[in-house]
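Form 12-C: Joint structure prediction
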Amino acid sequence: MSGVVFLTKDESVQTDVGAVKLSRGGGGRPVLWLHSAMGEAADALTADLVADFTVAAPYFPGFSGSEGIEQIEDMEDAVYHLLDLMDRLQMERPIVAGLSLGGWMAAELAVRYPDSVSGLVIANPAGLYIEGHPIGEIFGRSTSEIADEIFADTEQPLYQAMKGIGGSIEKSLSSGELPFDVVRPHLESQAAVAKLAWNPYLHNPRLRRRLNRVKVPTVVLSGTKDGLIPPAHPEAFAAEIPGARLERVEAGHMLVLERPDVIAAAVRSIS
Amino acid sequence: MRFFSFHLMPYPELPDDYDGPAWITIPNKLFDPAVGTQVYNRYIDELIYAEELGFDGVCVNEHHQNAYGIMPSPNLIASILARQTSRVRIAVVGNALPLYDPPTRVAEEFAMIDNISGGRLIAGLVVGGGPEYYSFSINPAHARERFAEAHDIVLKAWTEPGPFEYIGKHYKLRYVNSWPRPVQQPHPEVWIPGAGSVETVEFVAKHRYAYMGIPYFHISVFERMFKMFREACQKEGYEADPQQMGWLVPIFVAETDEEARAQYEEHFWYFVKRLLPGITISPPGYTSLRSYENMMKGMGSFMASLDSWEQVVDGQYAIVGSPETVTQRLTENLERLGAGNLLGLFQLGTLPADLTKRNLELFSSEVMPKLRAQFPDVAAAS
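Section 2 - Result
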């Protein structure tokens, strides 16, 4: 890479399943950022990291116009998509960092292909089933209820936008108060998440016993006020991944929006 | 015209202080088995009585984990009807194919009913309602693909010599070999219910099946649906037969219009306000976004949004009145829709046994003969 600090958004790269949208830029050691099931942009995080790293933040197929979800059926396909994407972006052994669904994907990649990554930052990850600590329901709920579970910081613009929708998306759509085009990307991405996580619900029963295959420096971030994925989940990742460091942050589920600085520091701590 | 008596088998005794949805999460402690024992038997009696009254057929359907219709296995009810009736068509509308794994189970059970009834089964094939994908933890993003594959498996199991292999994306069956085979050849009449999605309409037209308009919408929605269906048939190179279309509608007949409304209205609102909430839940990936957008646009004309009896009458959401009024309204609407099957819901919500019985009797003695005279073409063909 050129080494020049820059960040471009809405770029697109051709992959085996179609054109994928992404933000990318920077120079130096590669970092791949994977978003959560919300499909949120990670502008603050990537703007910070491009100072020191070659950063790519792709949108998974089904999110924000990335193509190819019809060719992805499960987490195994998702992992192959990530390998393909890393090849296309010429990212050799990146640090892979991700939030929630993205953290789960990072772990699935690292247990299957331990040599394909050089470090992991896993924030509030999905991926495990832990008796007595269920992950909250993300499908079919009102956006307002979900907002309260995923944000501790109620000043966040996305929190306020979600509260603004009020009751169910269905009601807002049928009354015409919400234009369909505003919701379309959300509906598309929910369908993509359903393919990966409807059943088993947001977990892979085989993942836990494989976590000891992760060979690289790992930081697990736990938002102690996460109302969606209980802290027992990041704690279990940290306990199972050899040498992983668990860092507790007083924040909610959407760490990449509430505390991008903490994620950036975790990435830097690996390099 | 063919006349069917359709039963949803609703749960009629939700407590007054329960105001939650009737689907997925409705606590099953609200189900009283004593009520169940009573209403299952009563509802079966009501279906059997339709044969005695001269109906052409009876209809049952499948829903899970809800109070709207306590018939998770319509095939159980249909097999009772196969024995307890001797003439009527038994329409199971239908089996939710993606919920059966492997779907050869549907080919087998339907063929059993067709054998036991001596060839009287009408085979309804459905995707299943949105709530069912929560209730069964079946991935809604696979709903349409699974339905398409399961449909092929069921039809092949009936029409192609077994054993054969079926290797699809969702089902991999090395030995498909349905015992029994259906009595009706090449296969029982197939009905597909739909709520107006383009994909479903085109699918039904292509296979020359019958399209059953899903109820609880303003009459103009049905009109659009059937117009779309006729056009889809024309694109396939043929004119739709009226028997390929069915209109499902709540019907209540009493001596006078005033008496009909007075006897019926509270039971109707129980259905609308207590049993419908939750039925339209659409899990992610369950429909194409194009269909979902259309569905959302149509929600304003969905029965659950009604508040006044005037709206019910204006939109023809239910046909209620004296024999004269009901005859006149049904005639107008059947002419308008061009449907050759009338699927009446004669019991709805909390409508009690005595009023349901009287309703069926008045309809069959005072209304049905006039409609048969009015729409003779199809009756002669059937």
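Section 3 - Comments
The first helix of chain A runs from residue 43 to 49. Residues 7 and 25 of chain A are 4 Å apart (CA to CA).
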